[in-house]
Specification:
heterodimer; A: alpha+beta; four-stranded antiparallel β-sheet; 11 helices; about 15% strand; B: alpha+beta; Butyryl-CoA Dehydrogenase, subunit A, domain 2; Butyryl-CoA Dehydrogenase, subunit A, domain 3; three-stranded mixed β-sheet
Chain lengths: ~375, ~400
């Protein structure tokens, strides 16, 4: 057992941290997320130059061959700084799906572009009525000549407004909840029959609802009727990434709140002198550490056999869902009126943690999933 | 013992229900239902409709122009208003400073201010908290110095809800810097149009503007605007906070929100069935409904004791603690019920999505959750309320 980082990994962590400290302070973030785009193309370009976009990609496709640990190190720091660039959608989900399900030709065509920062991707998976069940897919993919056309509606597709390509989870065969018959289809985000309604989300990200009206797909990634296991694998790894992002966000809340308790004075002494707040703070620390442990587990099991990988991801998602909500809400509470203001960073972290809990399913959803996996034996 | 309303109380309920049905403008109910920030004109409009019927100050005795209702009647009125999505009345005049004025104010103050609260000619705000004085309110530093027949007030108030609507503020000021903290405080009525007052908005985490900072710079306040005696302001403030703690339970509002939560959870689907049938979610809704039921009957027991003429003690802090926790629980579950559709947060100036994203019932749910994070902070934080109970009720 070894929880140490290698020298290269330490260097990566330091370089991400120092770039973010330099470029991504909270006041700048506030301005950035109010722009139409919601992030900066300039930042995206620099992230490509620094090699972060290529970090998790294999060397064969212009990548740096990083694995789960490298993803985790980036995620945690992105969480600390509420990074708004579409790294998660493009690199973790987009490149992740291409890598897991795509052909050699598809990988060769699309992965280097991603690594170079030349293409942005988004993953359209959610549908209203399916909640978080990945197998319940109503959006249809139908054969049209050599290719496919897509029809249906996807909701809350994060980062779709600025994406070049979409990966659409759609059904080519079977009934609405069959695990079989589901494919991953690539479509141009601004292509024919793709009708987007763009909006801002509560955590200041950008998303869209997308109606596909016989929209032609550019390609199918892998088996057009058997891609669900690939999607599940990538989503489990994405949960690992989000878990680390959540840990970074919680760490900031924990440190900020602790510092506030030591400096804010009421009744002639720091409010941290009051035992009830001391215990609250200790609980907060334990929540952060539990989340850190399970984020680590989910990432280190990212490439394990499916049941083991899924169990770790489900456990982490439950933990970060519950811890994130609690740490976020208590940080607002302990900051009093200040915690309620838009100008303090605390509320923004609370909102981000709430959206992390929502993305790919709340704690409840994954607790049910965990129980099914853990009790199967 | 009897849990049922008397025939008279039932008749009263029907009368209130009918009145609201006939008089509440549909547009106001719609805004309230969608949790869109109400503007001043909306709240004034509903207040004046109630005033025409003599109901604009449900908690006031007849002699000051209130309806003279029993606590049970007030409870029924609150229930009916919430169930019909009537906008909440601004509490600062009717629930807060009004009772202080008719209990401790001079005859001239009663004559002048009470009618203007009843017809909402005045909009009041509460000048209590300061940047350095939140939970420790008695440490407040806004000074009022005597200058002939005026006080000259200097200081900085914060979290002043609706100060941007208000033309009057009731304000805690320090008149004696040498006395013990609680004894040097006085209760002043300040005209917000007096020179030297600046109101600056604070944007809250729901991105709305409800609270403000108020700066007072050499503000001259006539001494006739002092409530009761100089140095007794803390007593009046505590009287006011005590009143606030019973209304802050918000049982009626929570019942309405719970009903709405169930509507959402019946419409949303999980695993091919209504979300409300999904065991984990169903159990959470049931748990909070039971919490609310316990609060409702605790509240009714307090009202019954009040009806029987017992003075409310520090145990009413319990209503504030449980009431605020339940409000937060219900609004959080509503967001959870929405799944991904809790995320969109693009708003028109009227507070709604533009154009609406997701189902109609998603409108305003996240705003309600975010704004309700304040309920465990304002009116004395829940930590302070628990200290009050520990000390005053339990003797610890």
């Amino acid at each position: 057992m070894d929880f140490q980082l290698s020298e290269e990994q330490k260097l990566l962590a330091d370089s991400v941290e120092s770039w973010l400290q330099d470029k991504y302070d909270f006041e700048r973030w506030r301005k950035l997320v109010k722009t139409d785009l919601g992030y900066a193309d300039e930042n995206w370009k620099e992230m490509a130059e620094l090699g972060w976009l290529a970090m998790p990609l294999p060397e064969d496709f212009g990548g740096l061959g990083g694995g789960a640990v490298e993803r985790m190190l980036i995620a945690e720091r992105f969480g600390k700084h509420l990074v708004a660039e579409p790294f998660f959608s493009t690199v973790i989900l987009g490149a992740g799906l291409i890598l897991e399900a795509g052909s050699q030709e598809q990988k060769a065509a699309w992965l280097p572009e991603i690594g170079e920062g030349k293409a942005k991707w988004a993953f359209a998976h959610a549908e209203h009525g399916s909640r978080f069940a990945l197998n319940e897919v109503h959006t249809k993919a139908e054969k049209a000549g050599d290719g496919w056309v897509l029809s249906g509606k996807k909701i809350v597709v994060f980062d779709a407004p600025s994406a070049d390509k979409l990966i659409v989870l759609a059904r080519s065969a079977g009934a609405a909840t069959d695990a079989q018959g589901i494919g991953l289809f690539v479509a141009d985000a601004n292509g024919k029959g793709v009708i987007r309604q763009d909006y801002r989300t509560v955590d200041n990200r950008r998303a869209a609802d997308i109606v596909f009206e016989s929209a032609p797909a550019v390609a199918a990634l892998g088996d057009p009727a058997g891609a669900l296991p690939a999607a599940e694998a990538v989503i489990d790894r994405a949960i690992g990434f989000m878990a680390s992002e959540a840990v970074g966000a919680m760490q900031v809340l924990y440190e900020t709140t602790l510092a506030y308790l030591k400096t804010r004075k009421q009744f002639g002494r720091p409010i941290g002198d009051f035992q009830v707040l001391q215990h609250r703070m200790v609980d907060m620390m334990m929540q952060v550490e539990s989340a850190r442990s399970l984020a680590l587990l989910a990432n280190l099991k990212a490439d394990a056999p499916a049941p083991e990988r899924a169990k770790a991801a489900a456990a982490a998602k439950v933990q970060i869902g519950k811890s994130g909500r609690w740490v976020g809400q208590q940080s607002v509470q302990l900051h009093g009126g200040m915690g309620m203001t838009d100008e303090l960073n605390v509320g923004h972290y609370m909102k981000r943690l709430m959206m992390i809990d929502t993305t790919f399913g709340h704690a409840d959803h994954h607790q049910k999933r965990f129980a099914a996996l853990a009790n199967a034996a | 013992m009897d849990l049922e309303f008397t025939p008279e109380e039932r008749a009263f309920r029907d009368e209130v229900r009918r009145f609201i049905q006939d008089n509440l403008p549909a547009s106001l109910a719609e805004k309230t239902r969608r949790n869109i920030h109400l503007d001043k004109a909306d709240i004034v409009a509903w207040h004046r409709i109630l005033h025409a019927r003599g109901w604009s100050a449900p908690n006031w005795p007849k002699q000051y122009g209130g309806p003279g209702w029993t606590p049970v009647q007030r409870y029924i009125f609150d229930e009916e208003c919430a169930a019909a999505d009537a906008p909440p009345l601004s509490p600062f005049g009717v629930s807060m400073v009004g009772p202080v004025i008719y209990t401790f104010g001079s005859e001239a103050q009663k004559q002048k201010y009470l009618p203007r609260i009843l017809n909402m000619e005045d909009w009041w705000c509460q000048g209590y908290s300061e940047p350095g004085s939140g939970s420790d309110l008695a440490s407040l530093r806004t000074r009022a110095e005597s200058d002939g027949d005026h006080y000259v007030v200097n200081g900085h108030k914060i979290w002043t809800t609706q100060a941007h609507f208000a033309n009057m503020m009731f304000c805690l000021v320090r008149t004696d810097p040498h006395a013990k903290p609680q004894e040097g405080i006085s209760f002043l009525l300040i005209d917000m149009t007096t020179p030297g007052i600046t109101v600056r908005p604070i944007i809250s985490i729901d991105e709305g503007h409800g609270v403000n900072e108020v700066f007072l710079d050499n503000v001259r306040v006539p001494k006739q605007n002092l409530i009761g005696q100089e140095g007794k302001g803390w007593t009046y403030a505590k009287f006011l906070l005590g009143n606030e703690r019973t209304t802050i339970a918000e049982v009626a509002t929570s019942k309405q929100r719970l009903k709405r939560l169930k509507e959402i959870a019946r419409a949303e689907r999980a695993f091919g069935a209504p979300l409300l049938d999904e065991p984990a979610f169903r159990d959470k809704v049931a748990a909070i409904e039971i919490d609310l039921l316990a609060l409702e009957y605790t509240n009714l027991r307090v009202l019954a004791a009040e009806s029987a003429g017992k003075a409310l003690g520090p145990e009413v802090s319990m209503l504030k603690i449980r009431g605020s926790e339940i409000q937060q629980g219900i609004t959080e579950l509503a967001c959870e019920a929405l799944g991904y559709y809790a995320a969109p947060y693009e708003r028109r100036p009227d507070g709604s999505n533009q154009p609406p994203v997701g189902p109609d019932y998603a409108q305003g749910r996240m705003e309600a959750f975010l704004y309700n994070r304040a309920t465990t902070i304002y009116g004395g934080s829940n930590e302070i309320q628990r200290n009050i109970i520990a000390k005053m009720v339990l003797g610890l």
